[in-house]
Every structure is written in C-alpha cells, then in structure tokens.
Write a structure and sequence with these properties.
Length: 368
C-alpha cells in the first residue's frame, strides 16, 4: 500500500442458521464463508479477511480499499450469507437465513438484516485494532464500555496522562426510534451524553472520534432488527471496531471496560436483562437459558491492510473474576423468572411475540 493510502476495515455479520438451536455456528457454514472470501481475495476485491463467530453469528472481517458502504463489499458479504443460508437449509440448521430480511440485495446491507461496523483510515506506523463481537444482546450494549474507554479517566488512564487524549473524544449517538443522530463532544458534553446513552434500547453510540484531529477511534453496528422487521427476529448481536494505542486508549484500557459484566438486554428470546460475559472464542456458545450474553474480542495488527491475527483477547485469567461475577449475577437475575427487571419492560416487548399472547385477553378487561 502507498504511504498515506487509506484502508477500510469492514466487519459484516449475520445469523443465518444456528447449531444447535441458537448456540453456535456449524463449521460447514464457516468453511463456506472462508472459501468465498478466499476467492474474493484472489480476485483482488479485498486485501485480506478473517471469518469468526460468536454464538450463532458469523462475522466477516475484511480489509479493502473500496471505502465505507461500498456496494461491491456489501454485495460480497450478502452473497456469502446467502451461500451460507443454502448450507444451513441443507443441514436444517435452526433459523436458516434468519437475518436476511430482504429477498434481493439492493446496494447496501444496512437495513437488510446483517450488522455492519466499518471505518476508513490511513494506517499508522503500527495499527493495533480490537474487534468486539457479542451474542444475545443489542447495539446499546456497547454504550457503557465505550463511555468508559473514551470518557472515563478512572478506566482510561491515558485521558489524564497522554497529551494526545486530554482534549477528549466526541461520540456520535443514534436515536434508533427517530432515525436521527447527534454528536456530543466530551468531556464537556459528558452529562448530556449520559442522559441519552443510559437509555440503551433507543440511543446507541455509533462512532467515536478524537477531538484533537477528528481521527476515527471506534465504530459500531447499530441496526435494530426489530425496527427493520417490525417483529422479533433476534437481537442485533452487535459488533464494534476500536483502534488503539499511540494517542488512543491502550489495548488494556479498552479491554478494562469489560471487567465489569454490566447488565444488557437480550438473553433468552431477546426479552431479558443479564450480564455481558467476556469470554475466549471457544467459550462463546451461550447455552444457559440461551445465555448469558457473550462478548469476544479479536485483536489484530494491520500491516498494509493485512490482518495479522487474531489474538483471542479475553483468553486471560485476568477476566476470570468478571466471568465469575457474571455467573453469580445470572443466578440472581434468573431467580426473578418472568418478573421485571429480569424480563424486559413492556415497551421493549413490543416487537416480541408477547403481544400475541396478550391479545387473547382483548375484550376481557372490564372498565372500573
Ligand atoms: C435470543 C434467541 C433465543 C430464541 C429462543 C426461542 O436472541 O435467539 O433465545 O429467542 O431460543 O427461539 P424460537 O422462538 O425460535 O423457538
Ligand atoms: Mg439465531
Ligand atoms: Mg446471535
């Protein structure tokens, strides 16, 4: 790659069939995705790729020079998911094609089901990136850790110590209900930011930039499948890309944000609150009450667009405490059974199948 040339890092994900139930992805689907992306790399369409999975979601990690929202790259991802769906149908895997909400591709996978986190940047002398992938939760799950990484000096020492960071970061926040977004510059905008992003079901941080030079630092997949489909079709199971080091939060500062297994919405039937448990790749198969929600992190060094890695970032006993706490919190939350706040509040249940259950009571309520 030429000096100063820009590389695009695209992470496009979808659940196109679970093995078993909503637990995992069958290896044949991963092989199909790898083969397709291998061919695309041979053709020079993408620079490099890696296929990973978290729970029942396939994540296509790709580097290229086509920029964000490239119809060519999105089309490629769509075709990969369609091919994987064929295999899933053949094996009668669970929910084959679940996240492909439209019949035909129309230029951009946004709004069609798959989740997308993308960023374009000039690769630095050394470019360490972290890719987070979650299962059994939605995009708002990133709000708290992103706040910690980029606005909380008790998490990120660099906000106090590194002169490149003391000017702070700006958060682009999406209002998923209105389809509008607003940028909040921190630290001055911290309180307003928190007033929004504490409402995780509606407001989602979609990207973060460094104030001193507007450099992109983080990008998140923010689609709400339920709003696209108008009914429950699974949680979004979001992904996020975070660039690190040399004037951005260090790898360890970014990961520190996940030591606290905060409560997120998702889990069983996308209808429950539970802790987000950071796990190594091989433990990302949620089975207890279809959960608890998981997050994995793949670390890469980029080298002229080549993805050097992945390193399995949560495969570290330093996260054992977070996992133990997540399991204790799971026990506690589960004991509430169908009661709030373990079960999500009514408004969040709007797009689930619960209204169908309650519709049987129509006409039986008597005014008092
Ligand atoms: C959560 C999830 C699962 C399913 C549950 C019921 O995101 O995918 O918890 O909601 O297994 O699935 P169905 O309704 O397909 O039987
Ligand atoms: Mg599924
Ligand atoms: Mg999933």
């Amino acid at each position: 790659m030429k000096e100063g040339a820009k590389v695009t890092l695209s992470v496009i994900k979808a659940d196109v069939g679970g093995f078993v139930g909503h637990t995992n992805v069958h290896p044949e689907l991963l092989d199909t995705a790898k083969e397709r992306l291998h061919n695309s790399k041979e053709k020079g369409q993408i620079i490099d790729y890696h296929v990973l999975r978290c729970g029942d979601d396939i994540e296509l990690i790709m580097t290229h020079d086509r920029g964000c929202d490239s119809p060519e790259i999105h089309g490629l991802a769509w075709d990969v998911f369609v091919a994987c769906t064929e295999v899933a149908k053949e094996l009668k895997l669970y929910g084959a094609g679940q996240d492909l909400l439209k019949d035909a591709f129309s230029g951009n996978v946004r709004g069609m089901g798959p989740g997308v986190a993308e960023m374009e940047f000039a690769e630095r002398k050394s470019e360490p990136v972290l890719i987070f992938m979650a299962d059994k939760t939605s995009s708002g799950a990133w709000n708290l850790p992103l706040y910690k990484m980029f606005a909380d000096p008790f998490n990120t020492a660099g906000l106090v110590i590194d002169p490149h960071m003391t000017e702070g970061f700006s958060f682009d926040v999406l209002d998923a209900k209105e389809g509008a977004s607003v940028v909040l510059k921190c630290p001055s905008g911290i309180y307003t930011l928190l007033a929004l992003i504490g409402t995780t079901g509606r407001y989602m941080v979609s990207s973060v930039r460094r104030n001193s030079d507007n450099e992109i630092a983080a990008a998140v997949s923010t689609q709400k499948l339920s709003l696209i489909a108008g009914r429950y079709v699974g949680k979004d199971d979001p992904v996020a890309i975070v660039r690190t080091q040399s004037g951005l939060p260090a790898v360890g500062e970014v990961l520190e944000a996940f030591v606290f297994p905060h409560l997120v919405s998702g889990w069983m039937r996308g209808s429950h609150t539970g802790p987000l448990m950071p796990v190594p790749f091989y433990e990302a198969s949620p089975t207890r009450f279809d959960g608890p929600p998981r997050v994995i992190c793949a670390g890469f060094q980029l080298s002229d667009g080549r993805l050097i890695g992945p390193h399995d970032m949560f495969d570290d006993p330093a996260f054992d405490g977070a996992r133990r706490l997540a399991n204790r919190v799971s026990d506690y939350m589960r004991r509430h059974g169908p009661f709030e706040p373990h079960r999500l509040p009514e408004a969040e249940m709007e797009y689930t199948t619960m209204p169908q259950v309650l519709s049987a009571l129509k006409g039986r309520f008597k005014k008092i």
